[in-house]
Amino acid sequence: METHPDCRCWIGGTLPSALLKGDSVRREGSGVRRSRRKNVNRKFLIWLLATILLTTSSLAEGQQVGKTIRAGVIAPGAPDRNPQVEGFRQALRDLGYVEGQTIHIDYRFAQGRDDRIADLAGELIRLKVDVIVSFSHRVSLIVKKTTTTIPIVFVFVNDPVGVGLVPSLARPQGNITGVSLQGLDLIGKRLELLKETVPRVNRLVYLRNPAEPYSPAYWKQVQSTSPALGIRQVSSLEAKNPDDFDKAFTAMARQHPDALLVETNSLNTGNRKRISDFAVDHRLPTMCGLTYFMDAGALMSYSPNLPDHFHRAAVLVDKVMKGAKPADLPVEQPTKFEFIINLKTAKQIGLTVPPNVLARADRVIR
User: Fold this and answer.
1) pTM of the full predicted structure?
2) Strand pairing partners for 177?
3) Per CATH, the architecture of 69-181+307-328 is what?
4) Which of 121, 153, 312, 363 is the most exposed place for a label (fewest CB within 10 A)?
5) pLDDT in tens, 172-183
6) Spelled out in words, what is the top-level CATH class assigned to the domain 184-304+337-365?
7) What's CA 127's distance to the chain center, in Å?
């Protein structure tokens, strides 16, 4: 039996209907399979393109998030007299920043010379830092004048509204925000703890720097608060630069006060060892406003918790680097405080600290 080369028929007859039907199904099935393969290929191409786009987008986004931040830090003193800078660095580490990898910090120290601050700020501006962290109100005020575009986060500032850094704590405005030490509000508490520790205190000396813009208000607060606590005689001794301390110490030795209250300012902090040594030598109970004085041998301190203070500053820097505007970030105020007593110093000056005062201490140095 032969078949025609151009048709599916038998010579002398046609193919059985069952065979013709099966052949038609096969042809139709082959077309469906080809159509399905085309659909699968089209879907695969769409998936592949979408994957490439998403991966590229994720990589670009990851590179943006992982961008190394460049921060500038300006402090008023010398590197070895600025423990607060190390406190801030630790706070950044606690937030996951790694110096040299996710953040690069350019440090500038004014070495006690305010006339250098503007030049130091100019250096950081030329380096095109992403944010400037300024320590103390004096540094912050000068930095604020040098740039209106680079975000500024101030740290270690007493009374930021009173010194003119911001118009209000809730709405700092401009390109600046930061963390306040809330010093004025703490004077009454320091005097109260001093009186409870040394009930015999009647004559008090306040060691201050009148060049600080907040100092007059602090001095008035000392004068107004003392009488209600039974402290009848208060006097102030002034130190505007390191050379003034010897004169202040001589005057203090002549007055024979019952206790010393130390103003929280950068000059006193930088000379805390000299102040503490004088107080111990003259058996003079001393209350200070920063925990740094405790390492220098002071008797007592009542201050904002410094690790928390720096943590809040680091969080502000982090927010700014993620796009927040300083004007929209209220100035942070301390919510944690620390009362420390040095019993070794108490023994040196012949003072017995009442048990009820010891019970209130957050930390006791023995």
Assistant:
1) 0.76
2) 153
3) 3-Layer(aba) Sandwich (3.40)
4) 363
5) 999 999 999 987
6) alpha beta
7) 21
